[in-house]
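Saturday, quiet lab. Running sequence design on the structure tokens for the scaffold JK sent over.
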């Protein structure tokens, strides 16, 4: 039984549900990957992914859906499309090296056709709730310098932000809100 963490209604009236990633969600993650534009993939993964073999996509999806709940959490945003199937439209995750770490590396991606609809903020809020439950106080991550949409989202959260730039990437560290 899936545990729904909440829902969000977009400006167009579409309902998006939020839940934790489950062990058998690899296909959901592969589907999300294939619905991302090349630019969104580049901004999220920091590399061009147009020639990634399908086998590699599946291997990564299996790894990313099998999480140690003390070190990794992933929240997925899903919709039920006309085909009656659940489809992912975004995912936010964090990982920390040990269960004792108070800082975790965080990442987020939202499908292009669902960007600028408030999903990124809701995903990060749900992820922050789970992080606080585990004693995490800060999220950190590397962001491509040109990823202005993510930087705008972080600014809207009105949290303390530390940044440093190296080699075209910005390391961002924020207090959990």
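Result came back. Writing it out in full:
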């Amino acid at each position: 039984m899936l545990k729904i963490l909440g829902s969000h209604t977009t400006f167009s009236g579409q309902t998006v549900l939020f839940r934790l990633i489950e062990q058998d969600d690899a296909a959901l993650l592969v589907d999300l990957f294939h619905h991302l534009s090349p630019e969104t993939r580049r901004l999220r993964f920091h590399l061009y992914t147009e020639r990634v073999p399908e086998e590699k996509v599946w291997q990564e999806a299996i790894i990313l859906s099998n999480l140690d709940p003390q070190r990794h959490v992933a929240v997925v945003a899903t919709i039920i499309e006309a085909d009656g199937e659940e489809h992912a439209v975004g995912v936010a995750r964090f990982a920390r090296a040990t269960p004792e770490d108070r800082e975790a590396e965080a990442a987020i991606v939202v499908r292009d056709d669902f960007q600028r609809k408030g999903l990124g903020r809701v995903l990060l809020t749900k992820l922050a709730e789970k992080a606080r439950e585990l004693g995490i106080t800060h999220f950190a991550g590397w962001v491509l310098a040109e990823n202005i949409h993510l930087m705008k989202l972080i600014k809207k959260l009105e949290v303390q932000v530390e940044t440093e730039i190296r080699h075209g990437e910005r390391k961002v560290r924020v207090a959990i809100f």
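Notes for JK: The first strand starts at residue 4 and ends at 9. The helical segments are 26-34, 38-45, 54-65, 119-133, 148-156. Ask whether to fix the surface positions before the next round.
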